[in-house]
Amino acid sequence: MSEKKSIKLNIVLNIIRQGSMVLFPLILLPYLTRVLQTDCYGRYNRCLNLVNYFSLLGANGIITYSVREVSKLREHLKSAEETANQIYTINVITTVLAYLLLGILLLIWHPSRDYVVLLGIASILVLCQTLEREWVLNVYEDYSFITIRTLVLQSLRVILAFTLVKTKDDVVIYATINTVVAALITIADRIRGRKYLKVRLTKDLEIKKHLKPMLIIFLSTLVIFICQESNITMLGFMKDEDTVGIYSIAAQIFTFTKMIITAVAIVMVPRMTLYINNGNQDGYKELVSKAMKFLIIFSVPTACGIFMVSKEAVLLVAGSGFSDAQIPLQILSAALLFAAFGHFLINGILLVTHNEKKAFLITAIGAISNIALNAVLIPQLGYIGTAATTLFVEGLIAVLGISLAKRNLYVENMKEALIPALIGGAYIVGICILMDKTGMTMVPCLIVKIALSMLGYGCVVLLGNKKLLREIRSSLHL
């Protein structure tokens, strides 16, 4: 019974955590976009985007690898600490390398002083990533601490931003706030992590044991990152800061929404890993089937809803100065139908079943396609071309994921989820069209749209399919 309760609690906590990671930025975003405006907001996002590449290099696939390897040993403290120490030491080495490469880039590039300052502040995030211990908390399933910490420090971030960021010249202050909050998260996680593991540097690295799987996971993570971040990088170099700022709004709403959709399915991944390691194929198949049905049930209405309220969403989140973000957001809403599935197929199936090479192949094809299409479309279409590229690549990754993961992909009676989801999605589109004809002002109309859409969709999908409703309820008690 305790095991069941813990998994139910983990699902709830993960939804709260992911929801807060969406809610707090959405609260802050309208204020920031109006104060910092498109140029300064785009400049910071461009700097952060660049630093993220070096953060990825410093991580070297280590976080994902740490969770997987240390989880196997968590009941054997000495072995777990030895493995954690080896991985952490390798992480420190890769972080030093990342900083050296960043320094070389700055010497070659010669950016303006404004960029140097923002890059310097943002680059501290690379060190925070190396020192943080959230992966330890994930290994020992301390989701309650992670959730509370997230709520407290994200609240602090919002309060500091509202208090200290007053004009577009305060972009440096905003960058500093983000870095300070990241440092506080690192400190909190390190203190809490000592409860489980004492992680320190070691001379006994066993590099041959760790290097190959780390590199495979790193390469897979790299190409996924390229798919996500090369859009802003290429927009920044091929267009201007205003274009980056406009697309960033659409991309953030897209990313936030995808996080919510995948929250329930991804929290099942540790249990899938346990079933695979224990040879419990029936339990694994059941979880995979339910996770896929969840994604269908949540992705269809979300995509339809975001498409239909894209104008209101952009105006509320970012203001009229970013109204051009409506069209890329509509394109990205269609990408949601594929993005959640691609994410789960790679992280929830291929990596769990140790098919890292297949995951790398899929993401490599996606990254190459992403760069090639952006190079063709951005000069002519700007952020619309970038959004179209994302839609194509997300669809490609989902199709390839289904093809290469089909031996471990089980979905029983998919029609039970698909047909009600499509009917419910059509209902959402219809109710939004009708509400647009009422002449109501924007905010009340949006509230009514959301309320009627949620109510009607719930009736169509859940009450119209009692078996699926029972599955959703039972999944909370796995």
Keywords:
disordered N terminus; 84% helix; mainly alpha; 18 helices
Descriptive notes:
- With 478 residues, the chain is an all-alpha fold.
- The chain folds into 2 domains: 1-205, no CATH class; 240-478, no CATH class.
- 84% of the residues lie in helices and 0% in strands.
- It has helices at residues 2-59, 62-71, 77-109, 113-131, 134-139, 143-164, 171-193, 207-238, 241-266, 269-278, 281-308, 310-318, 326-350, 356-381, 383-404, 415-436, 442-463, 466-475.
- Helix 11 packs antiparallel against helix 13.
- The longest helix has 58 residues, at 2-59.
- It starts with a helix and ends with a helix.
- The model is unreliable at 1-5 (pLDDT under 50).
Which runs of at least 5 residues are low in confidence (pLDDT < 50)? 1-5
How many structural domains can be distinguished in the coordinates? 2
State the secondary-structure class: mainly alpha
Main β-sheet: number of strands, strand sense, barrel status?
none
The residue-averaged pLDDT reads: 82
**Tally of strands:** 0
Quick one: overall form? globular
Number of discrete helical segments: 18
Considering DSSP H and I runs of 4 or more, what fraction of the residues is helical? over 70%
Beta-strand residue fraction: under 5%
End-to-end distance: 10 Å
What is the CA-atom radius of gyration, in angstroms?
A: 22 Å
H/E topology pattern: HHHHHHHHHHHHHHHHHH
